[in-house]
Amino acid sequence: MKIAYADCFSGISGDMFLAALLDAGLPLETLRDGIDCLGLPDEVELRLTETRRGPMRAAGFEVVAADSQVERGLADMLAIMARSRLSESVKATASKIFTALAEAEARVHGEPLEHVHFHEVGAVDSIVDIVGAAIGLDALRVERLYASPLPYGTGMVESRHGMLPLPAPATLELLRMAGAPVVSSRANVELVTPTGAAILAALGTFQPPDITIQSVGVGAGNRDLPWPNVLRLIVGEAAADTDADVDADADAGSASGDDAAWRHGRAAADADPMVLIETNIDDMNPQLYGYVMERLFVGGARDVFLTPIQMKKNRPGTLLGVVARRRDEAALAELILRETTTLGVRVQPIRRYLADREFRRVQTRYGTVIVKRKLLDGAVAASVPEYEDCLRLADENGVRLADVYQATNEELLR
Description:
Layout: E1 2-7, H1 14-24, H2 28-36, E2 44-53, E3 56-65, E4 72-73, H3 74-83, H4 88-109, E5 117-118, H5 124-139, E6 144-147, E7 150-152, E8 156-159, E9 162-165, H6 169-178, E10 182-184, H7 194-203, E11 204-205, E12 211-220, E13 230-238, H8 245-251, E14 268-269, E15 274-281, H9 289-298, E16 303-311, E17 315-325, H10 329-339, E18 346-350, E19 353-354, E20 356-364, E21 367-376, E22 379-385, H11 387-397, H12 401-413
Parallel strand pairs: 1-6, 6-11, 7-10
Antiparallel strand pairs: 1-13, 2-3, 4-5, 8-9, 12-13, 14-19, 15-17, 15-18, 16-17, 20-21, 21-22
């Protein structure tokens, strides 16, 4: 499994994270193409430079755009995502980051979520940082993001709300929501920005992983500090998965290189504490369930399901169930209470057992398809082509979706 570790010894901002992604292997053209898919009203220039912070070289990243003072709310951000030409996975990741930030702002200012307006984060450069983070993680095939403890500076920072203490209130709330470990720093400047905190709060697991390193990206912060003001992003394979590559080559038949990178594993307990959130509903317009499900996934739900049930007074109803990480429990419960007609939800801790999995690029006559394989006790238990890849190739080649699936499965049998 491809993972990444954000070494945030000098903090994190959106542009530092994006610079580190670019330095770790994200092509600048891929980022430009993705940002173009947003259809933003003004021209956006992306500048990648080589720089130094103290004794260390680093990548510097800057967004140049005229739209610097526009305020947008969460609905505006989600609308931009919805009408963009980005992939569904990138849309979902970016929307999750925007939602986490909006929830933090709502709690800090004591406002309903729909009344929250982003200020600095509503500007084009911050939109690029957040959406670019989603584009970069997707392009590098990173399935899981880890992060170090975060330093917090002291002092004050100027914002559209006036002078605010550091860490900025929204940053502090995001770190609280994520259960992020923080460490003191002698810096009297902002080390962790709301955008950087939102990326990690929405996507990150705060622990150092065992990793086989493939690339290291170094992103520069804007200030010169007594130490190298950089963010290091370490990208590679989860180390526990790499010891079976040799056996996997034989199992892959004629495949080689990346296409032969199969890894065997045994079903294991999920390391993340999980919960099941449920509620019974018998008085809501069924047209709303699709919207609620989409918002739950954006908010971090691992699975959402709807089950028809018979309720009191012989009313047909629906059981709404959500499987989620425990750290997302409060936010998702609040979302259910806000977006549905239910008066309460019930929560219980659960355990999951996960099969090992691996992704393989398969070349078909229609193009390249990513295939996900489930592995149990060193054996391939199932192989499933990724739907989005198959759909894209069917559209590009003017063939049936079933034809792409069939061609992919034929290649797997060779």
